Amino acid sequence: MRSPHRIATRPSDAPLDDGTVHDHRTVHDDRTNDTAELPATAYSNPYDELGALAPNPLEEFLHEEKDEPAADAPWTPPNHRRGSRRRTRFAGLPLAAKAVVAVLVATAFLALGDRWALLYAEHEAADKLKDQMKLSAAPEVDIEGFPFLTQVFDKRVDKVKVTVPDVAADRISLAKVSATATDVRIDGDGPTSFKGAHIGEMNGEVLLSFDDLNRELGASQVTFTGKGHDQVLARGTLPVAGHDLKVRADARIQRNGDRGISTDIGGMRLQLGDLATYRPGTREKEGLHLSRSSADRVSKETSKAKALLSVPAIVQRLGVPDSVVRGALESDAKLNELTGAPKFVNDVMGLNLIDVAMGHPELLKKLGLDPALLDGLAKLTRPVLADRLTLAFQLPKLPGEGTMALQDVTVEKEGIRVRIAGSGIGIGR
């Protein structure tokens, strides 16, 4: 390792050259002050020179302590002028600035108190609505206008919005009832003493969601969709006597008084695969009728045709003379002549099997029908099926005074929307 000090290679008393400055001293003249004074003794070993330059390690411990300054020096008070200046900055502000700061602080506290009073009043109003209307959940109450305290002292609120989710209405639930009340007079002595309110005018709407209908009336796996502005389509399956039958119906929505919605259900029919179609009712085209494919099979299969012609009530309903029937039962040629006519297929499709075949289970089995299924269909009358598919409901009555009525009904993609209006409604009285 190269030493950082210059090492003398000649005695210190050796004469220098005749004033001649070597080249390295000329080039590095700026380093002459960086080197320590060379010792007088020349060292043959550079490490000896380094050892001589190093301080004695015992000097740190073996040295005399210098006397400390006197401890009884006179006491002088600390200088707090900097902190005082900090504390007096606000005092040094102009009077106008102080007034602005005070106004801002007071306004912040007033706004905070106003919002607290507003939240308290909204909470109290929601609880009273929940108790009086027997709701499962508290409604959302939003009192508009600022500041609120001035309205409380005036005992009049300009506008209040109320949203009630999941309102029970007969056998179904209303997804949402939202209303906006105006000209609301408050009954109470202050912000924390809310006793009730009187609503001058109210307008709102009711939504009967198709999703809720599908869930609540979905025991039959029937789904509801809108068609037009006043029609709802019901499509799905209906379990009857252990069989899942395809069901379809059309419901027309209309008002029923001031608080009710009624449905006129038509086009109801149950499809028994490709065998038959059941339409509840007593008219000519209603009842259980074979499909065209089933009637074609009866006309082409001898066993089914003879089983059908063996029932006197069916023969009478078909209008076939007894002599022709006896000949058809005795001769396959005459049977083919009778059943091969186009009129025979149409006449078979016109038979109401609920009327003429209920007492003949063997015939039903020949036709591929379950007698228990027909028994279940016979009990599924038009009123019973219509009741299972109805969407009618009544709005709940108001808990206090006032009137509320339906204005119009429209069918939308998401459900049935009803507009409502009311006046003179009292709450909490």
UniProtKB/TrEMBL annotation:
Protein's UniProt keywords contain Membrane: yes
Pfam families: LmeA (PF11209)
Alphabetical UniProt keywords: Membrane, Transmembrane, Transmembrane helix
Disordered: annotated segments: 1-49, 65-85
Membrane-crossing residue ranges in chain numbering: 90-112
InterPro entries: DUF2993
Basic and acidic residues bias: start-end ranges: 19-34
Superkingdom assignment: Bacteria
Record-given protein name: DUF2993 domain-containing protein
Organism in which the protein naturally occurs: Streptomyces formicae
